[in-house]
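Bit of a strange request maybe. I'm writing a small parser for structure token strings and I need a real example to test against, not something I typed by hand. Could someone generate the tokens for this chain?
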Amino acid sequence: MNNKNRNGMEKQLKIALVAHDNRKADMVEWAVFNAEMLSKHQLICTGTTGSLIQKAFEEKGISADITCMNSGPMGGDAEIAALVVRKQINLAVFLIDDLNAQPHEADIQMLLRQCRVHNVPIACNRYSADLMITSTLWDNDDYVPKEPRYVKFNR
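Reply from user aminoacidic:
Good idea to test on real output. This should exercise your parser:
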């Protein structure tokens, strides 16, 4: 039996979606553009970002499984980082406002670090997000991501 979704992917992913205030419009536009694909997966978002995506999807008649955590400044980044640590996130898309200081910078860096440490792909712009969500590696049973090695390199 073929369980492939319309984009050809069989595996259902848990995708974290996070966007700073000045990137929320970009995130909503990206999510709506990729709604057909994203609606086949579980979306876990920081609060405001998730609410905006949910509203945009509803306006377009798109049904999706969206879980909203707290807003980023209220701990949403940390909540998603905890899911990364527990291996409950397959992919993260985090559209960061690199042009303005963020009051919760420590949480932002923690989420980015946990994705790197736990080998969770994280896209920080739309182009890398598009490449990651369309990768054929998600359903390739022969591909097993290599765990990061933290050993000193000896010459």
